[in-house]
Amino acid sequence: MIVSKCYHCGDDCNRTKVLFDEKEFCCNGCKTVYEIFTTNGLSNFYDIEERAGTAPNEIQRKYDFLENQDIVEKLVTFNDEGVQVVNLSIPSIHCSSCIWVLENLNRLNTSITSSQVNFPKKTIRVTYTINDFSLKRLVLMLSSIGYEPYISLDEYNKKERKVDRSLTYKLGVAGFAFGNVMLFSFPEYFEVEEFWLDRYKPVFRWLMFAFSLPVVFYAGSGYFVSAYKGLRSKLLNIDVPIALGILMLFLRSTVDIVFDLGSGFFDSLTGLVFFLLLGKFFQQKTYSFLSFERDYKSYFPIAVTKLKKNGDEENIQIYKIKIGDRLLIRSNELIPVDCILIKGMAEIDYSFVTGESQAVFRQSGEKLFAGGKQLSGALEVEVLKSVSQSYLTQLWGNSVFAKDKVTAFQTLTDSIGKRFTIGILTIAFIATAYWLLHMPSMALNVFTAVLIIACPCAIALAAPFTLGNMLRIFGKNKFYLKNTNVIERLAKINTTIFDKTGTITTTEKDTILYEGVALTEAETALLKTTLRASNHPLSRSLYEILKSNAIMTLDEFQEYTGKGIEGRSKEHSIKVGSASYVGRNSSDTIASTAVYVSSDESYKGCFVFKNKYRQGVGKLFNSLGEHMQLGILSGDNDGEKQQLKKILPENTDLLFNQKPENKLEYIKGLQKDRNVLMVGDGLNDAGALAQSDVGISVSENINVFSPACDAILDASVLSKLPLFIKMSRKSIQVIKLSFLLSLCYNVVGLYFAVTGQLQPVVAAILMPLSSISIVVFTTLFTNVLGRRIKINES
Amino acid sequence: MSVIYVLLAISISVAIVFFAAFVLSVKSGQYDDAYTPSVRMLFEDELLSNSKDSTNEKEIKLTKSTNQ
């Protein structure tokens, strides 16, 4: 078959080809988007980037809750005099064409006055008048062109978050002062006995003093705070010697100019703070389009449909659900609270909560848990518990989620800082004591000089630049870290635990085995045609697998919710569904997910769905197993146990049927004598991810949300995980090497300081020189390491 | 020679003006999104006017963007 690509979204057009305007589309949705774009003069979309569109999802009444004004009020950021401004997050923004079409939204509706895209964050800010327009219509319009906004409970609670720009300001202040002070102190570097220079010296010196004030008290304030906090909790972190250095530089320089002893060290002082802040700034790289802090709120809808006593439907906010309320859960909706099923056949996918991939069937009167997804048909339920007390949400009450892994971890820099501070203070006191005995007038000079020159600027820069650069290299290789601290923790890992479903297996179950009497060609064709009409996930995947191109017309099609489907063409009929539905005795059914088929009322066989492992999983286990202990922690049943044993190293722990809190406890138990890396994917791993030393979330599409974790790994590079761990270890070695280098600088500086010959110009040269050479050294080294990742690839 | 005071005053005030401009630009959020404007700039010629009659054929020169 010739594979043709959809003109709009670039997907293969195998399933249903739609021809329109001499172009091929994969579905009616894409064709509609094309129509909308071309009739509104937005056809440039296809010229900017080819096949850049996104196929729209079908939505019917999903956004009815946006008619509720209370909810709208919470979502919009501005609402006055008929004008509303709203920020919407649109995960499908991915290229320049998207920016272009979204910024030309007013072509589609004149009520929209302006729209602006923030590409890194994947958000759009829309201003519109509400005369004959509304938020609901905006959302529906966006959805119809393939940019469905993501509106979740998280959004609802979010106050307009204050962006913290203080570091940028501080950096600006320090840079500004640094440049000016350098210029002012320049004349005195060439200490020539010159008349005019001598005369205006005090002016320049006091100007420098004035410029250094905001640097010490504003830009450098963070170091004093951090040092104070460290000392209070009896920790000698790296900020202690830095704060000491800044303070000494400032006091000594002030004393120098007050008593006219010299020009002071204001240039070094401002330069030091500037370089330190630059390091912080570099380290602060964040992936703003990813979120590492998600909990159940990001997954839950904002509103549900409540059924009033008189049978009317009403959209209410989730937090307003009361015990005893009747709710309507439509197909593919998430159940937000624990409840009892009143009406309808429930087919619930709990993979969100438990990791168990097989959907369960429930009859009316049975209990349903929050977090399950109804797969087919509408349900009527009665609420048992409020949102915050439901089974799934209770997990977030665990104290693990309040723990901050960064503060609990002592970084390499801090552990060096401790020894460094003790060493420097010892040298300072010994040198002072020596000078007190020989030339007491020099003692104070030497004491301050030692603290100034030993200020560990280069040491403090080594880690931010090495790890910051590594973070970027990882990012380019589709491994996104929350912060640089994760690299240091990753380097210490000696045990790796994997979740099964969705982590080492693909999310689609596309290995399908057929067991039973072989189907004839006509039967296969009929089966495929029948499946085509069904939207059930299993029908979809079975449809993709079946090899038959004959498409026939169905005379009759019936879908029995929670049971199966039936198709009839002429005199032949076919039934697909659960064992009992096709008339198969359910006692000899298999543990795995299976779909049973009967033709003309006689049982034929069943399709068994098997988990498909991601590419390179075997290799991944092999190379990881050489260095560390591995484990599997799955919420699923143990149907795959034998197969897993084959690809895993011996004495690997395999645990199945683990509930979320079991996983958490298991990791906790391991942590007594190990550093554990947890690799998971779903909400059911959230506890384990939070508890582990490093929690990595594997995702097939990084724009789709993953649970709170330390890092997000694109599923396509899962097999590179051992390499990433190795790189992290190498980065730590780079930091250690640069510590050695900066110690050399310190030794040279200390020689000048201890012998009492530290001139401002020496400090002014040594400080930037050491900082810059460290930055160059670490950047070069990490880039060389980064290239190695690429080489391994090819 | 007291002209140096004048010169210093001028140079510092010029510097402070630029510094203030920097602070204002940060405050207005110009540094929050450093990527989108770079793409938007390329579309400047293609921004469509809102007049209804000229929907389709407004000979628009397209610069095929070559960025990824």
Summarize the helix and strand pattern of chain B as letters. Answer: HH
Oligomer: heterodimer
Question: What integer is the average pLDDT of chain A?
Answer: 80
Number of separate helices of chain A: 26
- The first-to-last residue Cα distance of chain B is 59 Å
Distance between the termini of chain A: 31 Å
What is the level-2 CATH architecture name of the largest domain in chain A? 3-Layer(aba) Sandwich
The fold-level CATH name of the largest domain in chain A is Rossmann fold
Broad shape of chain B: elongated
What is the gyration radius of chain A calculated from CA atoms? 33 Å
Please give the most extensive interface between any two protein chains, plus how many residues each contributes: A-B, 37 and 36 residues
Task: Output mean pLDDT of chain B.
Answer: 70
How would a crystallographer describe the biggest sheet of chain A?
7 strands, mixed
Structural class of chain B: mainly alpha
Poorly predicted tracts of residues of chain B: 50-68
Biggest sheet strand line-up of chain A: 16-28-27-26-17-24-25
- Give the DSSP E fraction of chain B (strand runs of 2 or more residues): under 5%
- Give helix % range of chain A: 40-55%
What's the CATH class label of the largest domain in chain A?
Alpha Beta
How much helix is in the residues of chain B? 40-55%
In total, the number of strands of chain A is 28
Give keywords.
heterodimer, A: 794 residues, alpha+beta, 7 domains, six-stranded antiparallel beta sheet, 26 helices, 44% helix, B: mainly alpha
Strand and helix layout:
The complex is a heterodimer of chains A (794) and B (68).
Chain A: E1 18-20, E2 23-25, H1 28-39, H2 45-48, H3 69-75, E3 76-80, E4 83-89, H4 96-103, E5 112-118, E6 123-129, H5 135-144, H6 153-157, H7 166-189, H8 195-219, H9 221-232, H10 239-258, H11 266-283, E7 303-307, E8 313-317, E9 326-329, E10 339-343, E11 346-349, E12 360-362, E13 367-368, E14 373-374, E15 379-383, H12 391-394, H13 405-408, H14 412-438, H15 440-453, H16 457-476, E16 479-481, H17 485-490, E17 495-498, H18 500-504, E18 511-516, H19 521-532, H20 537-545, E19 556-560, E20 564-569, E21 572-577, E22 594-599, E23 602-610, H21 617-625, E24 629-633, H22 641-647, E25 653-655, H23 660-670, E26 676-680, H24 686-691, E27 694-699, E28 711-714, H25 721-754, H26 760-793
Parallel strand pairs in A: 17-24, 17-26, 24-25, 26-27, 27-28
Antiparallel strand pairs in A: 1-2, 3-4, 4-6, 5-6, 7-8, 7-9, 9-15, 10-13, 10-15, 11-12, 11-14, 16-28, 18-23, 19-20, 20-21, 21-22, 22-23
Helix pairs in contact in A: 7-8, 7-11, 8-10, 8-11, 9-10, 10-11, 10-15, 11-16, 11-26, 14-15, 15-25, 16-25, 16-26, 25-26
Chain B: H1 3-27, H2 36-43
